[in-house]
């Protein structure tokens, strides 16, 4: 093939992948993985992302294992971390998986490792990720031919997904064997009685198994994409292991404090953070001290000071709760910090204006001072915006630094919201002191 015709082919592929990715995936699935790898390797990674996002993790893993580390690393940097983790989990060669991760930059590697790690005894940690699934329009005869090359007894149920890998239905092997070979899977599939989130704890898994009496439980990620199956025997083994671990906690070897832990244990765990909190409280008090003369001249400022600080604290706590949940559920990753921060900035700004208007009306009728009304209006918006941004950024920064954001975010957030509230209110009051 000449260089010019090869270039034309690549341009046609780019148009096909960009405009008709679903149809392109259907065509690529019919080719050998070696041929698919050659096609994708000749194109910029950015032009093939829509294709990689629609491949099943098993097919994507087979293709990726044949591609150079440089291509695989660039793909993992650009693709959504959870999607990338699904593909990496389907690679059985752990060394090859690690090579691909090492080929990415530090930020992407960190995100991938977080996506690959699930909480102990969660659905993600207990599931089997190498599960076969098909498109609903696949013929029974085609599926049977594929299964003939698989180990016997490896699959009791098959699953169907749409072109975004959202779970559609399941097919019993017995139904498949007895069905007309010209039927499609959509004609014989049934809805799973229940589906579980990848971050669901063991207790929730047990409840679902007991309620529906199923042997296999499909698992989906936070975007409802099918990522694996939890088997019943796996759950039983995890439950036995958990019970043996509970025996250790009963004799006081647990690292986490319980409701009936010894007071000395509670003291050891809590005291360092109480000391840190005391230090930050003095920092906030120092800010108030800077404006001591202003407060002495206008005592009404001291009355309204807790109002500003309280609202900024609530705003920061709301942003913190949402961000912590996103990190815990792996909905967001540290490299997404700018998107999270900007979203919380806009939310805090809108809420700040609404709350500031209500506050300004109340203060005006209470104080009959337009100057004080203007000061608290401006300071309320400013302090709530700072608090909202801080609530989003602090847990991400702690995660990047290797700290537990759930344990220490509140301490730092309280400091920032107090200082922001005090400084904005008293600082603006000092600037506009002639209006009081």
Description:
- Helix 5 packs across helix 7.
- The protein is mainly α and 436 residues long.
- It has helices spanning 3-19, 21-28, 33-41, 45-52, 57-66, 69-78, 81-89, 94-102, 106-116, 123-126, 140-147, 173-178, 185-188, 202-212, 232-250, 263-290, 292-297, 300-328, 337-367, 370-400, 405-431, and strands at 133-134, 157-161, 167-172, 196-197, 216-220, 226-231.
- Strands 1-2-3 form a three-stranded mixed beta sheet. The chain has a three-stranded mixed beta sheet with strand order 4-5-6.
- It contains 21 helices and six strands.
What attributes characterize this protein structure?
Tetracycline Repressor, domain 2; CBS-domain; 436 residues; three-stranded mixed β-sheet; mainly alpha; MgtE N-terminal fold; 3 domains
Helix and strand topology:
Blueprint: H1 3-19, H2 21-28, H3 33-41, H4 45-52, H5 57-66, H6 69-78, H7 81-89, H8 94-102, H9 106-116, H10 123-126, E1 133-134, H11 140-147, E2 157-161, E3 167-172, H12 173-178, H13 185-188, E4 196-197, H14 202-212, E5 216-220, E6 226-231, H15 232-250, H16 263-290, H17 292-297, H18 300-328, H19 337-367, H20 370-400, H21 405-431
Parallel strand pairs: 1-2, 4-5
Antiparallel strand pairs: 2-3, 5-6
């Amino acid at each position: 093939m000449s260089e010019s015709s090869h270039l034309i082919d690549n341009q046609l592929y780019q148009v096909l992948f960009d405009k008709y990715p679903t149809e392109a995936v259907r065509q690529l699935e019919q080719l050998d993985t070696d041929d698919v790898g050659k096609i994708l390797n000749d194109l910029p990674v950015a032009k093939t992302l829509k294709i990689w996002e629609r491949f099943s993790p098993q097919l994507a893993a087979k293709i990726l294992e044949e591609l150079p580390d440089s291509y695989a690393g660039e793909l993992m940097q650009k693709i959504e971390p959870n999607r990338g983790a699904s593909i990496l989990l389907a690679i059985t060669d752990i060394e090859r998986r690690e090579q691909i991760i090492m080929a990415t930059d530090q930020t992407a590697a960190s995100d991938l490792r977080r996506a690959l790690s699930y909480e102990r005894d969660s659905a993600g940690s207990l599931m089997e990720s190498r599960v076969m699934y098909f498109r609903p329009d696949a013929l029974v005869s085609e599926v049977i031919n594929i299964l003939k090359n698989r180990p016997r007894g490896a699959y009791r149920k098959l699953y169907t997904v749409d072109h975004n890998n959202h779970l559609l239905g399941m097919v019993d092997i017995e139904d498949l064997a007895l069905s007309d070979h010209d039927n499609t899977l959509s004609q014989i599939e049934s809805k799973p009685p229940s589906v579980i989130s990848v971050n669901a704890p063991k207790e929730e898994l047990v409840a679902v198994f007991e309620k529906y009496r199923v042997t296999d439980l499909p698992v989906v990620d936070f975007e409802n994409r099918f990522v694996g199956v939890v088997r019943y025997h796996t759950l039983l083994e995890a439950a036995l292991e958990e019970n043996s671990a509970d025996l250790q906690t009963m004799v006081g070897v647990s690292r986490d404090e319980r409701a009936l832990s010894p007071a000395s244990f509670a003291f050891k765990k809590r005291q360092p953070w109480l000391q840190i909190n005391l230090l930050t409280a003095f920092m906030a008090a120092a800010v108030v001290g800077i404006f001591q003369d202003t407060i002495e001249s206008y005592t009404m400022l001291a009355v309204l000071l807790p109002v500003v600080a309280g609202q900024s604290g609530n705003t920061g706590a709301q942003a913190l709760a949402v961000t912590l949940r996103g990190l815990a559920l792996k909905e967001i990753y540290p490299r997404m910090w700018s998107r999270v921060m900007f979203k919380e900035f806009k939310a805090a700004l809108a809420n700040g204006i609404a709350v500031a208007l209500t506050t300004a009306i109340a203060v005006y009728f209470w104080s009959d001072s337009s100057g004080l009304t203007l000061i608290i209006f401006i300071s309320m918006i400013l302090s709530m915006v700072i608090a909202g941004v801080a609530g989003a950024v602090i847990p991400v920064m702690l995660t990047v630094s290797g700290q537990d954001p759930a344990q220490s975010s509140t301490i730092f957030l309280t400091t920032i919201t107090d200082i922001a509230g005090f400084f904005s209110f008293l600082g603006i009051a000092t600037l506009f002191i002639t209006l009081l």
